[in-house]
Amino acid sequence: MVSVAHRRHHPATLLALLMLVCLCLPVTAATPIPRDKPDVMIQDATDQLLAISKQARSYAKDDPQRYYAAITGVLDQVLDMTYFARGVMATYASINRYRALETDAERKAFKARVYRFADAIKKVLFTKYGDAMLSFEPNRIEVGPAEIDPDDPDRAMVTQTIYSQDNQVYHAQYSLRRGKDGGWLVINVIVEDINMGQIYRSQFAEAVENNHGDVDYVVDHWAEMMLSRDWKGNPQDSGAEQDGGSSTDSSQASGG
């Protein structure tokens, strides 16, 4: 994991700064979140997330699955995990690689690998996010208005300024895109210049290299590796070669 020297905060802790706003009334289950306005969507989601984590401090130790399920119920509504997973996999999930496949069986396996990884990275992200939120209480949050990309009206950025109880100030930027249903979804987050998508992308590429190019092994053991102390996992002897490095190209496999 990349660290921020002047902050001394682990990225998982920084991730807990995301989508946090002033506490609303306690909630026991996720309520539908409108996605027609990016900034309003983020604020609605964070109201629920902070309320859930506040309430969960009384039961999370004894019933963690209840807490993770509540967190998931909110994040599932506002995060595009499949898009994020494709970005992390980079060339291994690129549209060019998909188009180069020759058979329906290969294309089916390609899509299945992406969806498996989306589930795996979701488990890792939501677990670390939930754990960190339990110990973080902001003093004040300021949510800026959504900034629509002038070159692409289906892209937007929302910025938050987060003031902690010890007077530290953090900045979080959410990248969003508009889906086919017209609703907005978060596709990446940058906290204090730490790009979460790039961090996971580097870790994925390193894990594939450490496991002799065995992408399927990394996908199927991602949660195990990332949630353990030694995230690199056990090298495999698959003999497969790694194809290229990480890519900053935002073009991902369309899934069909």
The N- to C-terminal Cα distance equals 33 Å
Identify low-pLDDT runs: 1-8, 18-28, 230-256
Helix content: 40-55%
Number of alpha- plus pi-helical segments: 8
Order of helices and strands: HHHHHHEEEEEEHH
The whole-number mean of residue pLDDT values reads 81
Share in β-strands: 15-25%
Question: Could you tell me the number of beta strands?
Answer: 6
Q: Structural class from helices and strands?
A: alpha+beta
Report the C-alpha radius of gyration, rounded: 19 Å
The shape is globular
How can the largest sheet be summarized? Answer: 6 strands, antiparallel
SSE inventory with pairings:
Blueprint: H1 11-15, H2 38-56, H3 64-78, H4 81-89, H5 95-100, H6 104-133, E1 138-143, E2 147-149, E3 152-164, E4 169-178, E5 184-191, E6 194-195, H7 196-210, H8 215-226
Antiparallel strand pairs: 1-3, 2-3, 3-4, 4-5, 5-6
Helix pairs in contact: 2-3, 4-6, 4-7, 6-8
Plain-language structure description:
This protein is an alpha+beta fold. Helix content is 43%, strand content 16%. Strands 1, 2, 3, 4, 5 and 6 form a 6-stranded antiparallel sheet that branches. α2 runs antiparallel to α3, α4 crosses α6 and α6 packs parallel to α8. The N terminus and C terminus are likely disordered.
Would you kindly provide a brief summary of this structure?
This protein is of the alpha+beta class. Helices cover 43% and strands 16% of the residues. Strands 1, 2, 3, 4, 5 and 6 form a six-stranded antiparallel beta sheet that branches.
Keywords:
256 residues, alpha+beta, six-stranded antiparallel beta sheet, 8 helices, 43% helix, globular, disordered N terminus
